[in-house]
Amino acid sequence: MSDKRYLGNIITPTPTAPAGPYQDSAASGVWSLAEAFAYTKAGLWPTAGNQLTRAVYAGGVIGPGRSADISLFDMATAGNSTDFGDLTTVTYTAGTAASSTRGIWGGGSLDGRSDRNVMDYVTIATTGNATDFGNLSATKGGVSGVSNDTRGVFGGGIPVGGSDQNVMEYVTIATTGNVIDFGDLTIARGYASGFGSPTRGVFAGGILAGTKQNVMDYITIGTTGNATDFGDLTLARFFGAGASSNVRGVNMGGDGTAANVIDFVTIATAGNATDFGDLTAARLMSGGASSSIKAFGIAGLIGSATNIIDVITIATAGNATDFGDAINAAYGNTGLSNAHGGL
After folding, report:
1. Rounded to an integer, what is the distance from CA 92 to the centroid of its chain?
2. How far apart (Å, rounded) are the C-alpha atoms in residues 84 and 243?
């Protein structure tokens, strides 16, 4: 029996190779049995029921000090988080970006008196300590990140003793190296939340010169250029947690008039945010993560650090419910996943 692929007049001779053994991996094209067998043997052939569902969060303030801890949980099943490994250094308020394979933390504050420009990465499907990826253009905390499956974009930030930043810079997630200039946000700010679709990334809220912002701006992730105004949050705030499906983005909590507020936007359509519901408890400096169905607010600050993990169903407005507990009560941690809305 031939192992040749039938090309006909519509199938390309080089179909899209599967990125992993997940039912939502791309493996378009017509494959020969020999090819399918080789990918299956390598553990890369998409399998029904095998979904991308892992959320990973890292850093933050635990007790009196900054943390390098990385933790994980399965987004498909309610429960507590478990240990993943450690970042290369302690950090909090780092920006994040992720593909279906790899997660990156960029920048962040070291100790309240100094920042870092380091980017760390992990392979999300495994556990272990992070590896150096490269450097941001400057040391800064309060960085925000958005990504699709190819590119991560880090925006804004506030260096200790410096001015609020409007700079956006990007990396190709599958490679390592330093950032490349992308363009500028509509206004300089730090501590915004980030989320997106495979096409667009949105930076929401933040703080500029000590003033809370309600501005949202957006970029087309696959190109470079300056951000465009998207609309306004329902309330001016910073330190919110961003997450999204490929259709809808949410901003959870933050330091504002009502820190339990969740609001949402339709990512493909510019406009003001709409009220979604409330967190189980008002808080700020939570980590955000999402699958294509659910969004999570991880830990955060409620007068003191908490270990709450909240969950919402992104497509359905309503209040958050308890999902489980983070390993540690913390705030300033930042999250990512291998199934977020940008993939």
Report:
1. 15
2. 21
